[in-house]
Write a structure and sequence with these properties.
This protein is of the alpha/beta class. It is built from 8 helices and 8 strands, in the order E-H-E-H-E-H-E-H-E-H-E-H-E-H-E-H. Condenses 4-methyl-5-(beta-hydroxyethyl)thiazole monophosphate (THZ-P) and 2-methyl-4-amino-5-hydroxymethyl pyrimidine pyrophosphate (HMP-PP) to form thiamine monophosphate (TMP).
Length: 213
């Protein structure tokens, strides 16, 4: 059984995290309640992803937070990472699963209810649903869908969903009300003066929102 918690999902950005670095940002954010950490660096080659991934594994050891690699399946396999996240334009889900093995977590980005419905629970473990809002951290994203669109994607899928796209602590209640398990954030944590405190605010908001549903 794959145990993972989508409540507060940090997507690392090397530019936004430049002040203290991705590894230290992740360490502090996990101390505040982040449950999943995704290493996303579109400019890094596989060797660089592996090097950063190893540093992240050391920093997160014993925390219970899961390390997910964005797109680079070779790095994910070399690291023995907890999982991989891919988009619709990356390798096929079947190929990703074959290379990862059955035990790893596989996440898939979706942008429409049809894509959400098509995500196969035999291969995929969770969906990244969105984008809820436009975000400068991912310039090639699809048209923002808002919370109604998020709810439609979540309802269409047979998998747990994490919402993504310009989300902040103020949006947590609406994310949870739409049926998502949690929210994936970049700038809400990367580049913040106190990533631990910011993560704690998010984690507490998720817990409170779940009690209110």
């Amino acid at each position: 059984m794959k145990a993972f918690d989508l409540s507060v999902y940090l997507v690392l950005d090397p530019g936004l995290c430049a002040g203290v670095g991705m590894v230290e940002t992740a360490r502090r954010a996990v101390a505040g309640g982040v449950t999943m950490v995704q290493l996303r660096d579109k400019r890094a080659d596989t060797a660089a992803m592996i090097a950063t991934g190893r540093a992240l594994q050391a920093a997160l050891a014993g925390s219970g937070a899961r390390l997910i690699i964005n797109d680079d399946v070779a790095a994910a396999v070399a690291l023995g990472a907890d999982g991989l996240h891919i988009g619709q334009g990356d390798m096929s889900v079947a190929e990703a699963r074959a290379r990862l093995g059955a035990g790893a977590i596989l996440g898939l980005s979706v942008e429409t209810p049809a894509l959400a419905a098509a995500a196969d629970p035999a291969l995929v473990d969770y969906i990244g649903a969105g984008p809820v809002f436009a975000t400068p951290t991912k310039t090639d994203h699809k048209q923002p869908i808002g919370f109604d669109g998020l709810a439609a994607q979540v309802a269409a899928s047979r998998l747990p969903a994490v919402a993504i796209g310009g989300l902040k602590a103020a949006h947590v209640a609406q994310v949870i009300a739409a049926g998502a398990q949690g929210l994936a954030v970049v700038s809400a944590l990367c580049g913040q003066p106190d990533p631990e405190a910011a993560a704690r605010t998010l984690a507490q908001a998720v817990a409170q929102a779940r009690r209110s549903v």
